[in-house]
Amino acid sequence: MTHRLVLTPGEPAGIGPDLAVRIAQQAQDVELVAIADPALLADRARAIGVDLVLEPVDYDTPPVAHRPGHLKIDALPMARPAVAGQLDPANADYVLACLDQAVARCTAGHAAGMVTGPVHKAVINQAGHVFSGHTGYLAARCNAPTPVMMLATDTGDLRVVLATVHIPLSAVPGALDGPHLAYVLDTVHTQLARRFGITRPRILVAGLNPHAGENGYLGHEDDEIIAPAIAAANQRGIDAVGPLPADTLFTPHQLARADAIVAMYHDQGLPVIKHAAFSRTVNISLGLPIVRTSVDHGTALSLAATADVDTGSMTAAIRVAGDMARHGA
């Protein structure tokens, strides 16, 4: 069965439109629908010398596998024409409207999932919107709790979940408590089974402090907060192990017995997976009522409309979204 995915290119001055245009040249086993301004994609295709046929989507027809050189389009207009590499707050409403449209298409059943290109948080905030990123915005649009961020390789050989995300390192200990860790572990357990078909996932949990606190000599959070949360999760039937010292957690021996790693903070987990597979890494939102994946990089304004754009992460994001859709709700 072929599934339909909607794609939002993100910031129009960045590489998101380039990614959409270049991805359209590749064979896909899903139907891709870009929610974007057709003029933007046509202009970017001309700029990089790529032939592209844009076709209006008909959501009332069954999805068909993507044809290279073609791209279905769900048209939304920009406020002003985009110039590659030059941010324009006037188009911030357009970026958010594309996300709103994608959520609406997924919740209405017109699409099996959404794949997002990179947005530029600062320019959206400059336009007067309080915007901390895709994750919180999409959660609000779906009336869902804030989802859990997971980065994974497209082959699933490494999955890293963040217990805390974009907060200062000094704020991490205060953000870790039993209820929050329970929510993270429950979400990871449930979503790996539901979206990835892993019937009994094993989750390895990193400690916060060096050597996971070393029995309290290097910090008390591991013994007083993380370990009790893991024990409580075990009582709920979750196969979680830890807290484990982070400096040996990502060794092949440990990873061989893990379906996912829960890291306590951003730079504890993400440097490892980005070093291992940067161009194959996918950002996945666990806990939304819809499938959502994204690239693991930013807008790269200086690369827009050039020949230097790597489509690896976008290709992986589409592949993973399609796999998640096939596992069903």
TrEMBL record:
It comes from the Bacteria. It holds the Pfam family PdxA. It catalyses: 4-(phosphooxy)-L-threonine + NAD(+) = 3-amino-2-oxopropyl phosphate + CO2 + NADH. Its main location: cytoplasm. Substrate binds at residues 134-135, 274, 283, 292. A divalent metal cation binds at residues 166, 211, 266. Binds 1 divalent metal cation per subunit. Can use ions such as Zn(2+), Mg(2+) or Co(2+). Its cofactor is Zn(2+); Mg(2+); Co(2+). Its EC number is 1.1.1.262. It is found in: Cytoplasm. Signal peptide: none annotated. One of its GO terms (cellular component) is cytoplasm. One of its GO terms (biological process) is pyridoxine biosynthetic process. One of its GO terms (molecular function) is 4-hydroxythreonine-4-phosphate dehydrogenase activity. Keywords: Cobalt, Cytoplasm, Magnesium, Metal-binding, NAD, NADP, Oxidoreductase, Pyridoxine biosynthesis, Zinc. InterPro entries: PdxA, PdxA_fam. It is an enzyme of class 1 (oxidoreductase). Pathway: Cofactor biosynthesis; pyridoxine 5'-phosphate biosynthesis; pyridoxine 5'-phosphate from D-erythrose 4-phosphate: step 4/5. Homodimer. NCBIfam families: pdxA (TIGR00557). The active site is located at the dimer interface. Catalyzes the NAD(P)-dependent oxidation of 4-(phosphooxy)-L-threonine (HTP) into 2-amino-3-oxo-4-(phosphooxy)butyric acid which spontaneously decarboxylates to form 3-amino-2-oxopropyl phosphate (AHAP). Belongs to the PdxA family. This is 4-hydroxythreonine-4-phosphate dehydrogenase. The lineage of its organism: Bacteria, Pseudomonadati, Pseudomonadota, Gammaproteobacteria, Salinisphaerales.
